[in-house]
Give the backbone structure.
Amino acid sequence: MWAAEVRQGHDIARERMNNPAFLAFVGDLRGKQVLDAGCGEGYNTRLLARQGASVTGVDISERIIALAEEEEHRAPLGIRYTRTSHAELGMFADASFDAVVSFMALMDGPRLDLDMGEAFRVLRPGGMLAFSITHPRFITKGSRWIRNEEGVKVNWVVSSYFDAAGWVESWRFTDAPPEVPKFLSPRFDRTLSE
């Protein structure tokens, strides 16, 4: 379901906001060895490969890596996929990559400190670490939309901001039809100061 929704362009935030800004930020990665940490089904990994990067994608989900590999077999770009957590990159040697990138994934793991430690370990001297995450203020256990009488979203409520207990968010992409089942994502809230 996830791969189909992403490939149909239903993730408006990815398509219109995050990807254009993030790809402009990371710049030209042609000829660089790049690790995509939390690659999902490989959508952004393929974007990087099409721009000339030599990309390795990692994700913790066995099923999602299988979907990425199926697409790589269907339309080869030379991408290597490995099933692992971005906090456990032991299969890669120190200083293996010119860049480590992560598109909206690091906020979904419980140990950002381990993610960062592994990213820096596998980076070559002078390498680049670039990642995007949701702002810790916007998705909390008690966050929700308030709608007016016509059903239009008018205010976003944030609550339970300092509640550090993990939880599971139920959501769908902005442009997904209402009949599409919601996704479940683990959340490990952190405050901005963390």
Residues 52 and 121 are 24 Å apart (CA to CA). Residues 144-187 form one domain.
